[in-house]
């Protein structure tokens, strides 16, 4: 992409979950320009194998490299858990994941930590290992939540069925009397109104988006890459239906984004679609 702006931060997720990271980045790093990609044609990631996730992540990173990014944030816990260490060695720019920043935040807040995440993230034991490597006397419980991402992507956050599903997922953690809960998927903060209704008010919530944004700022400063000029408007791309993404994301962005569709397995091919929201 010869005409692409230099020095953008690439952010990717399987869908709208990464918007929680985008929100934190724009608040904490207002001078940074961002390139956002949602792999909506292949969501949910949480039921995929490690081999599939690695393939998807490599394709997205090759595409982002063609857009001349200076850093990439995996705004997806599943990708962070299954692919981060491998792809970090393959690309010339820094790549940040969500697991370690969230684990560090959780142990500062409690001793009985619950994690809700996709089945793939739970199976990887990434959060469990990260927390215990930092502090061994913390107890960790994890629950896989396969229905959350499809419900969020379908815009069913306030559906009574979603409340019942959330209660079923959270009940085992409440029985263990957790004092801290990690949103182990960037989609899940969108369910905060539902989750907060179910959990006791004493349970602290850890949103990894907040802490990966802090880590990004520290990394940019360390590498001398922090922008000092006003940010360009965020560019949004998806692999699936741009209209659907635009309409769903409008409620969290506060505006209707122009979303472009791109085929990640053909990095030279993309075309713009003017998104409209009702």
TrEMBL record:
What EC numbers are recorded for this enzyme? 5.1.1.3
Q: Which organism is it from?
A: Spirulina subsalsa FACHB-351
User: Is Magnesium a UniProt keyword of this protein?
Assistant: no
The UniProt function text for this chain reads: Provides the (R)-glutamate required for cell wall biosynthesis.
Database matches in PANTHER family: GLUTAMATE RACEMASE
User: Active-site positions, per UniProt?
Assistant: 76 (proton donor/acceptor), 185 (proton donor/acceptor)
Q: Which residues cross the membrane?
A: none
- Give a single Pfam family match: Asp_Glu_race
Its recorded reaction(s) are: L-glutamate = D-glutamate
Broad EC category? isomerase
Family to which the UniProt record says this protein belongs:
Belongs to the aspartate/glutamate racemases family.
Query: Which InterPro entries does the record associate with it?
Result: Asp/Glu/hydantoin_racemase, Asp/Glu_race, Asp/Glu_racemase_AS_1, Asp/Glu_racemase_AS_2, Glu_race
Q: Which UniProt keywords apply?
A: Cell shape, Cell wall biogenesis/degradation, Isomerase, Peptidoglycan synthesis
Which pathway does the database say it acts in? Answer: Cell wall biogenesis; peptidoglycan biosynthesis
Name of the featured protein:
Glutamate racemase
- What GO molecular functions are on record for this protein? glutamate racemase activity
Q: Which HAMAP family match?
A: Glu_racemase
Q: Which domain of life is it from?
A: Bacteria
Residues binding substrate are: 13-14, 45-46, 77-78, 186-187
